[in-house]
Amino acid sequence: MAPLRVGLVGLGEVAQSIHLPVLADQRDRWIIAGVYDVSPSLVALVTSEYAATAFDTAEALINSPDIDVVFVLSSDDTHSRFVRAAMQADKHILLEKPACLTVREIDELLALMPAYGKTLFVGYMRRYAPAYLQARDELPDHADITHVRIFDLISEGRHFLKKSQNILYPDDIDPALLARGARERDALIREVVGTDAPADLVRAYRGLTALSSHHISAMRGLIGEPKGVVAAHRTNGGANTSVTFDYGHFACLYDAVVDDLGLFDAMIEVRSNTRRVRIIYDTPYIRSLPTRLEVTEAGPFGPVTKSFGPLYGDAFSNELEIFHRHIIEGTKPLTDLADSRRDLALMAAIIERMKESGGDA
């Protein structure tokens, strides 16, 4: 089969550091055929490095007969608009997380699904990391789980990218466009947090839809749906969050801490009385850094740990291989719009618990 022709809407950090290089590596599956961004300098950079057509608008790219697959990599507030256009144009879609900022937006898109005949894949790459995939076979029986811990104790991607890659952060975007995007993003967030929400609650929700969405999705994919949110709190101006999910006979504790130390410490740990399964992630911004899986069991002479890895399979590469397979086979992705709706509903429940506990604004 001929490679699929990809059009990218949005050429920012994740497009430059991840998607474009992975697409180029997988040249037997994909062709980088078209690009669009609101920054002329980004378009010029990418078209100088890849043999892609520059489109004047996102809509022109989406509706082009020369594009088979649309990658929606633009700012969160634009996702719903561009996904709707791509669905109506009957294009395959890779949608970077979060799928949208509100459940309402996803419900409006889900209403279009019966008439949509292609593949829509939401990019939760941590669910496609080798250690995560292996962990599903190593978990204790669900009835035997006694406790789950999830950590996101990290610094933002720029701390790693500025030391390893030459990413262009443009300064030529129309200020009016930036201001309009900020207003639209704020309005969507306030649909969830409330029109009069304090700044730290707004920041907490932005963190949930950005960083935390990866592990909320991974949690659900690994151990199923929680019954609800027992407690949630925010500190450090909303940059740090702590959440307790109710799984009935056990609790799942999630901590997110964002700082400028320049470290990445992300982990999922599932325990029973005699078994511990731990998935360890490194920063995804440096491609092919290994993930690791540790399985510890009680033995006659003490704990015995079995290690898988370091596993160098790149989560983003795995993700795009699986996306391609879904397109070719016509199968349904695990990370689709309906799945992402559950993430956003949980985030809204977290915000309600945070309102009860207060904050430090």
Summarize the entry for a quick read:
With 361 residues, the protein is of the alpha/beta class.
Comma- or semicolon-separated keywords:
361 residues; alpha/beta; 8-stranded mixed β-sheet
The largest pleated sheet is described as:
8 strands, mixed
What would the average pLDDT be, to the nearest integer?
94
Helix and strand element order? EHEHEHEHEHEHEHHHEEEEEEEHH
- Separation of the first and last Cα atoms: 56 Å
User: Would you tell me the structural class of the helices and strands?
Assistant: alpha/beta
What proportion of the residues form beta strands (DSSP E)? 25-35%
Count of DSSP strands: 14
- Gross morphology is globular
The assembly state of the depicted protein chains is single chain
Task: Give me the number of helical elements.
Answer: 11
Q: Can you offer a commentary on this structure?
A:
The chain is an alpha/beta fold. Helix content is 39%, strand content 26%. The chain has 11 helices and 14 strands. An 8-stranded mixed β-sheet has the order 8-9-10-7-11-12-13-14. The longest helix is centred in the middle third of the chain and has 25 residues, at 199-223.
Write the layout of secondary structure elements.
Layout: E1 4-9, H1 13-25, E2 30-36, H2 40-49, E3 53-54, H3 58-63, E4 69-72, H4 79-88, E5 92-96, H5 103-110, E6 120-123, H6 130-135, E7 147-155, H7 158-164, H8 175-193, H9 199-223, E8 228-235, E9 240-246, E10 251-259, E11 264-271, E12 275-281, E13 291-299, E14 302-311, H10 315-329, H11 337-357
Parallel strand pairs: 1-2, 1-4, 2-3, 4-5, 5-6, 7-10
Antiparallel strand pairs: 7-11, 8-9, 9-10, 11-12, 12-13, 13-14
